[in-house]
Amino acid sequence: MIRQEKKFDNPHKYDILITTPNRLVYMIKSSDMSINLEHVEWLIIDESDKLFEAGTKGFREQLAVIYQACSKAKKAMFSATLAPEVEQWCSLNLDNVCSVSIGARNTANEIVEQSLVYTGTEKGKLLAFRQLLMDGGLNPPVLVFVQTKERAKELFKELERDKQKLRVDILHAERSQLQRLQTLQHFRAGYVWVLICTELVGRGIDFKGVNLVVNYDFPPSTISYIHRIGRTGRAGRPGKAITYFTDKDKTLLRSIAQIVKDSGSSVPEYMLQLKKATRQEKRNLAKHALKRETISTEAKYDKDKRLKLEDMVRGSKDRKKKAEERKKRKPELNIKVKLPKRAKIAVSKEVLSE
């Protein structure tokens, strides 16, 4: 929340400015859109643990520019999960730091009913999800989290081929900004019942009334798990979260099972007795995603045939587009004059003599 005054001539006066770090830094450094933040009273950073990540994923350099521009502001950092690195940074760089926790720290919401389901293999996940559909366990709106955008496409096509007509759509980083906005609007309006997404939706986006979150792919960290299932159970509404896991996901199974138990849901005792993951194993898992078998059940022959047809259609569209672009261009005046052979020879000799 930023209370600010602008240098440039603008008749509108704002008390609160909601923005991303990169956009605000651009406005601070730009001469055309210079903004004065000297009178800012409060600077609030939401999702602070994500913004303060070290390396290329973090926003520390951008936040440093904003801090210098808001030198007199009181600073507050919000997050559902607060990493030790953020606390350490605050203790070193801020004065009179005070910590306020609402509920237990780094735990899931108690009003969310959570369950961990063992599926054995990747094919078992698809069977379990389809069984959930047949039993009427999907009470829209539903969020389904997968590991990568490729897996999101595969699951989307599998659900499209099912006889049960589901209003399903996907959301991932490969889609344009306009496509993302349209998908989000349709999901909020109820035109889309099941939204398949990646970690892109795990934070920051608020959906009212999400009844179920399905972790089709096991989350890469406990923090990711907390934020994913936090898409439901918001504003006091009850919710449900189902997490599928296979033998490959045993590294973090104990840690997440402990979170499920601490929030009031039941877990098998053997999960709590598994070997605890080391810090290095957790880091490796967060950096390098597990290699999983494909979701698609399409035969290789059918898949090759479909891809060949898609390439032909894509090539046809590209050729039509290029032809339309050529028509729009201003036609050039091309005049061809056919000269006799003797005239051509004479001209060439004159040119050579010069």
Description:
By secondary structure, the chain is α/β, with parallel strands linked by helices. It folds into two domains: 89 residues, P-loop containing nucleotide triphosphate hydrolases (Rossmann fold, 3-Layer(aba) Sandwich), CATH 3.40.50.300; 176 residues, Rossmann fold, CATH 3.40.50. The protein is 42% helix and 13% strand. A six-stranded parallel beta sheet has the order 5-10-9-6-8-7, sandwiched between helices. The protein has a two-stranded antiparallel ribbon with strand order 1-2. Helix 8 links the parallel strand 9 and strand 10. It starts with a strand and ends with a helix. 23% of the residues are buried.
Helix proportion range: 40-55%
Secondary-structure element series = EHEEHHEHEHEHEHEEHEHHHHH
| Approximate strand percentage | 5-15%
Query: What is the overall shape?
Result: globular
**CATH fold topology of the largest domain:** Rossmann fold
Biggest sheet: strands side by side, in what order? 5-10-9-6-8-7
The Cα radius of gyration reads 28 Å
Termini separation comes to: 77 Å
Just give the CATH class of the largest domain.
Answer: Alpha Beta
Q: Would you count the extended β strands for me?
A: 10
- Give me the CATH architecture of the largest domain, please: 3-Layer(aba) Sandwich
Structural class: alpha/beta
* Number of structural units classed as domains: 2
Poorly predicted parts: 1-9
CATH superfamily of the largest domain: P-loop containing nucleotide triphosphate hydrolases
